[in-house]
Specification:
This protein is α/β, with parallel strands linked by helices and about 375 residues long. About 35% of the residues lie in helices and about 15% in strands. It has 2 domains: about 5-240, Type I PLP-dependent aspartate aminotransferase-like (Major domain) (Aspartate Aminotransferase, domain 2); about 245-379, Aspartate Aminotransferase, domain 1. The termini are far apart. Bound molecules: pyridoxal-5'-phosphate.
Length: about 375
């Protein structure tokens, strides 16, 4: 089955009891048993819920995995991965990371004795010198948030496989429409479904997708034992959003490419971060491992003035100044004070994230209106 067909059909069947074409919202916590322990595969909705099962199977197919696991939020999905580690284990992670992931690692799991090293990761060569006997997991995002740096997934996966380590890839920015980390050798794909996957800024949810049976068993145990599972209504909303992921992503990518090129030529714009631009570090790797370059664009002003960058963000009218990304509406974010405020300024600057950086999530509005809005705001 091709990707567009999978979005609409994988794991999805008309409801056997009624013929309902759309997946019903099984708003129930419990399930009748005909005799103690005799049931239809469902006992309690923390463990399994039929609406969630359909979504999990759909996600597994989209990511070329075997198993999908859904969690209440993206961070709850990441949290579940941390819970299969033990005190003393070490995680090597990208230094350019979603702020909440960094906060979870450093403010919660360091307290439980898990060690983290944050590295600028592009290929296996950036990881190998830092491996130790305690290293168990490598955690990367690509494209990264908000600098849109690219990690060569196949290169890092070759190293982690040879050393018996797990590689987890946060695929939130790319979505399976653009890349499938599991086919490039990763062990775990993580998603904030809140973003492009659900796509309408009306639900928060996360997921993990894996191929390996034993890894799935460990994560499914955590999913049930820790209980950060989503409700059936939210699963329904994500399933509905996913049906149009391909057409949405095509337009997100097309408009983002056009805006990135336009910003690049704008006399008042300094640096433009977009993997589709030829000068972008990692452009060649992005071109080979992704089907297109995504809907996120970051930029700075030439004068690098924070008050002026703030003015641009205040002046935007079609772009809404808000956290998050990946919805049908265009959003503008100031990473330093919003999504990445939980990373200390010193750490941010060491990683190349300036306080003057503006991040855009390019939505599905008419490109002329988006361009005019930016032109007016930049002045
Ligand atoms: C939003 C986001 C997360 C966290 O997901 P939530 O659904 O907000 O918990 C993780 N990684 C990336 C790249 C994100 O954009």
């Amino acid at each position: 089955m091709k990707f567009a067909t999978k979005l609409i059909h994988a794991g999805i069947h008309p409801d056997p009891s009624t013929g309902a074409v759309m997946t019903p919202i099984f708003q129930t916590s419990t399930y009748a048993q005909s005799s103690p322990g005799v049931h239809k595969g469902y006992e309690y909705s923390r463990t399994h819920n039929p609406t969630r099962t359909v979504l999990q199977e759909n996600l597994a197919a989209l990511e070329e995995g075997k198993y999908g696991l859904c969690y209440a939020t993206g961070l709850a999905a990441t949290d579940a991965v941390m819970k299969i580690l033990k005190p003393g284990d070490e995680v090597l992670a990208s230094s350019d990371l979603y702020g909440g992931t960094y906060r979870l690692f450093t403010k919660i799991y360091e307290n439980f004795g898990i060690k983290f090293k944050f590295l600028k990761i592009q290929t296996a060569a950036d990881v190998e010198p830092h491996l130790s006997a305690a290293t168990k997991l490598v955690w990367v995002e690509t494209p990264t948030n908000p600098l849109l740096r690219i990690v060569d997934i196949a290169s890092v996966a070759e190293l982690t496989k040879s050393k018996g380590l797990l590689l987890a890839v946060d695929n939130t920015f790319a979505t399976p429409f653009l890349q499938n980390p599991l086919t490039l050798g990763a062990d775990i794909v993580m998603h904030s479904l809140t973003k492009y996957m659900a796509g309408h800024s009306d639900v928060v949810m996360g997921a993990l997708i894996v191929k390996d049976d034993e890894l799935h068993q460990k994560l499914a145990f955590v999913q049930n034992a820790s209980g950060a599972t989503p409700g059936p209504m939210d699963c329904f909303l994500v399933l509905r959003g996913l049906k149009t992921l391909h057409v949405r992503m095509e337009r997100h990518c097309k408009s983002a490419r056009e805006l990135a090129n336009w910003l690049y030529r704008h006399p008042k714009v300094g640096h433009v971060y977009y993997p589709g631009l030829e000068h972008h570090v990692g452009h060649a790797v992005a071109a080979s491992q992704m089907n297109d370059f995504g809907g996120m664009v970051s930029f700075t002003l030439k004068n690098d003035s924070l008050p002026e960058a703030v003015k641009v963000m205040e002046n935007l009218k079609v772009f809404t100044l808000a956290e998050s990304l990946g919805g049908v509406e265009s959003l503008c974010t100031h990473p330093a004070s919003m999504t990445h405020a939980s990373i200390p300024k010193e750490e941010r600057e060491k990683n190349g994230l300036k306080d003057t950086l503006i991040r855009l999530s390019v939505g599905l509005e008419d490109i002329d209106d988006l361009k005019e809005d930016l032109a007016n705001a930049i002045g």
